[in-house]
Amino acid sequence: MEKTTLIKEGKAKRLYNTDEEGYVWVEYMDQATAFNGKRKDHIVGKGVLNNNIDTLLFTMLADNGIHTDFVKKISDNEQINKEVTIIPLETVVRNAASGSFQRKFATPYLQKFDKPVVEFFYKSDELDDPFINTNQAIALGIIKPGESEKLQEFALKINTLLKARFEKAGLELVDFKVEFGKTADGEIILADEISPDSCRLVDLKTRESFDKDVFRKQTGDLVTVYQEVLDRLNNSQEEA
Ligand code: C5P
């Protein structure tokens, strides 16, 4: 398979068409952004780390019955995905309070929830990805009636699997964001990426951050903590 024309350059990935119908070529870039792209840095090694972490997590999810767009890793920083139409919603699942939830409701940092909280944000750079509820998403034609429940159920299943996998690696999954896409025959599948760019992870014992918060808050070296996440996942692979 060969890559052909560039479809889109996002904040951390480039997406290309391929010479085979139904597949896209994804290139993970050495770039980190924060505050909806307002801060942008070149970070050598980040693309390779996220490609490896994403491959490991999407493979684990697929092995557990989650339908995803992941096909195969083809180089250190590239993979092939199924072509999907992305539903323009960022689906966030939270197990504990942090980030925008903590800011909005002034809750203590990492306060645990009895049940995971699912939230939707409308994917729009111009509007700064605003919070959106089910009725608003239906009114805007982003989803059809009934799909919100499906997406929430799907996201919660992913949460259960990810949470258990990270726990084996000594990490608590605080929250994460996923995106879903529709295949040509209308099936909704997990798409985009799961990496420390899109998850909040803290050490089970020390509560140190092992995710993009170290870049957002400038409290640590991104490559060092992402490498630690990958190493911990690899080292706990056998027992997983
Ligand atoms: O900022 P907020 O607390 O709403 O983020 C919740 C989760 O979603 C975090 O893990 C964050 O990394 C992720 N997220 C993301 N992309 C965005 C916004 C949030 O991956 N555009």
From TrEMBL:
One of its GO terms (molecular function) is phosphoribosylaminoimidazolesuccinocarboxamide synthase activity. PANTHER family: MULTIFUNCTIONAL PROTEIN ADE2, SI:DKEY-6E2.2. This is Phosphoribosylaminoimidazole-succinocarboxamide synthase. Belongs to the SAICAR synthetase family. It catalyses: 5-amino-1-(5-phospho-D-ribosyl)imidazole-4-carboxylate + L-aspartate + ATP = (2S)-2-[5-amino-1-(5-phospho-beta-D-ribosyl)imidazole-4-carboxamido]succinate + ADP + phosphate + 2 H(+). Its EC number is 6.3.2.6. It is an enzyme of class 6 (ligase). Pathway: Purine metabolism; IMP biosynthesis via de novo pathway; 5-amino-1-(5-phospho-D-ribosyl)imidazole-4-carboxamide from 5-amino-1-(5-phospho-D-ribosyl)imidazole-4-carboxylate: step 1/2. It comes from Paucilactobacillus suebicus DSM 5007 = KCTC 3549. Keywords: ATP-binding, Ligase, Nucleotide-binding, Purine biosynthesis. Residues 7-232 form the SAICAR synthetase/ADE2 N-terminal domain. One of its GO terms (biological process) is 'de novo' IMP biosynthetic process. SUPFAM superfamilies: SAICAR synthase-like.
